[in-house]
Amino acid sequence: MNETPATVLIVDDDLPVREALSSLLRSVRLKTECFASPQELLASDRIDAANCLILDVRLPGRSGLDVLDELRELGLKLPTIFITGHGDVPMSVRAMKAGAIEFLIKPFRDQELLDAVQAALRLDQDRRREEDAVNELQQRLASLTARERDVLENLMTGQLNKEIGARLGVAESTIKAHRAQVMRKMRAPSLPDLVRMADRLGLGKT
Q1: 3-class secondary structure for 154-200?
Q2: Whole-model pTM?
Q3: Is 43 in a helix, a strand, or coil?
Q4: Nearest to 35 by CA among 26, 49, 46
Q5: CA angle, corner 78, sides to 76 and 79, nearest 5?
Q6: What's the CA gap between 88 and 167, in Å, rounded?
Q7: Taking Cα atoms as reference points, which of 21, 23, 26 lies closest to residue 10?
Q8: What are the backbone angles phi and psi of residue 204, rounded to the nearest 5°?
Q9: Domains, the chain, ranges and CATH?
Q10: Residues 121 and 51 sit within 8 Å (Cβ to Cβ)
Q11: What is the torsional sign of CA 68, 71, 75, 80?
Q12: Per residue in 142-174, pLDDT tens?
């Protein structure tokens, strides 16, 4: 079965540029969605399902940098490539600090853009894989009872079963039983694996 092609969003107020970029990306079997303005992009329901964003720095009404800031505020982590015909060092630095993965100055070679897009797609794939893994861990965590959650949080501090039992006011044998249940429900092969899982979930962090 063929994989669904990745989707690249293109935002540029210049129609010929949008068409040229879309044609180039479709030539390497990528899907594209084009927008003439930030307003069109932000009104779209396709942003979260997309895999990469190509964004012109200078857009009517607001800059591409402002658009990227707004996307970040909305919790959207789409890997972004900036393109511009009027780039300068301060602008490129601000773009990178905002989370852009590349800053291309027109005219750029087709291969430069394709390389940047491939890098963005790899980042997006890694991000989605990590989010899926964390979501799975959260479901496992939700299956724990309140007491098992207490035991897990105390295990995160490096305490022994006896110490946890004293702290929670239960027998050491009871802690051992709860610990075994925690390991089973979290599908942790070992205590270090369990600690790493809990760390990825942000447990024990202030």
Answers
A1: HHCCCCCHHHHHHHHCCCHHHHHHHHHHHHHHHCCCCHHHHHHHHHH
A2: 0.76
A3: helix
A4: 46
A5: 145
A6: 60
A7: 21
A8: 85, 0
A9: 7-129 (3.40.50.2300), 143-200 (1.10.10.10)
A10: yes
A11: negative
A12: 999 999 999 999 998 889 999 999 999 999 999
